[in-house]
């Protein structure tokens, strides 16, 4: 490899001419490498190696940076399933181009499977040097981009994984319209999965309150506790399909039943595709008062509270 390609590879295969200059690569060297075909000029001020990440190159060709869900999916956050290319451009963009050819105007971005985000005012966030938005920039734009429930799922995931603090999130959302700032009141840093958040929000929509990640002696944390004794467990596709996890789930269910709890274990598809049916079951339990400890439970020595940690 030449010195130019070595430095460009170290920067992830795509870099600004300013970044290259900071590494001692003069403009003349870059021009020579472009003419020789060693590297390509993606857009004015940006160069890339052949075979550089296609989504990153496409975002630069458009005239922005890779952002929003296109960035967050690489951070293992729960967010909406979306295969489109998310690009943050300046608040007043000029000369946006096709992701395939910078000489062709972008026109309607949806025809290329692109979502263009006009940059939100965020004076406390620094512009990245490279072609990929920072986690904070991506998270900020994801709030408006997704449905309310999906946005709250993403915020819960960011809080629970400690990628962002509550205070940082409040600063981040300060410049958003009131509608989106209100999402913060619905977040719960205790939520351990997006599926759990979806279920919690689904219940809240019918005025059924729940507590996340309640710790019960001999069981551990349960996903949601409705009232005193209705435990709702949400099983994701990955962890809960493993043999050891399957056995552990059954051990927990038996232990909870011994303590007098009602256990409703829900699969991914039941939360995502059969929620109305699930909701009907839970509303029925609540309407009958079965989610509360009754005198008969107390007489049997159940619901004393000593099992709660």
TrEMBL record:
Q: Where is the DUF559 domain?
A: 228-283
Top-rank taxon, per record: Bacteria
Q: What is this protein called?
A: DUF559 domain-containing protein
Q: From what organism does this protein derive?
A: Herbiconiux ginsengi
């Amino acid at each position: 490899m030449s010195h130019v390609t070595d430095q460009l590879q170290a920067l992830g295969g795509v870099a600004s001419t300013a970044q290259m200059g900071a590494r001692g690569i003069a403009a003349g060297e870059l021009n020579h490498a472009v003419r020789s075909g060693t590297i390509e000029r993606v857009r004015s001020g940006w160069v890339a190696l052949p075979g550089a990440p296609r989504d990153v190159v496409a975002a630069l060709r458009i005239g922005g940076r890779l952002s929003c869900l296109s960035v967050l999916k690489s951070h293992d956050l729960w967010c909406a399933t979306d295969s489109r290319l998310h690009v943050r451009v300046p608040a007043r963009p000029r000369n946006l181009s096709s992701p395939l050819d910078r000489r062709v105007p972008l026109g309607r971005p949806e025809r290329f499977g692109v979502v263009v985000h006009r940059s939100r005012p965020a004076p406390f966030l620094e512009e990245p040097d490279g072609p990929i938005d920072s986690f904070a920039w991506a998270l900020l734009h994801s709030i408006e981009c997704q449905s309310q429930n999906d946005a709250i799922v993403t915020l819960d995931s960011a809080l629970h994984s400690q990628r962002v603090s509550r205070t940082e999130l409040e600063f981040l959302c300060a410049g958003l319209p009131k509608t989106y700032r209100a999402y913060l009141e619905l977040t719960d840093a205790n939520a351990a999965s997006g599926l759990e958040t979806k279920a919690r929000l689904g219940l809240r929509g019918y005025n059924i309150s729940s507590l996340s990640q309640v710790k019960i002696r001999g069981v551990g944390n349960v996903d949601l506790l409705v009232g005193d004794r209705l435990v709702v467990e949400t099983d994701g596709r990955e962890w809960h399909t493993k043999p050891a996890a399957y056995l552990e789930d059954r051990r927990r269910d038996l232990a909870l039943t011994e303590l007098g709890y009602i256990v409703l274990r829900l699969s991914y598809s039941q939360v995502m595709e059969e929620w109305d049916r699930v909701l009907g079951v839970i509303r029925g339990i609540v309407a009958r008062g079965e989610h509360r400890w009754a005198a008969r439970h107390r007489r049997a020595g159940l619901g004393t509270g000593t099992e709660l940690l």
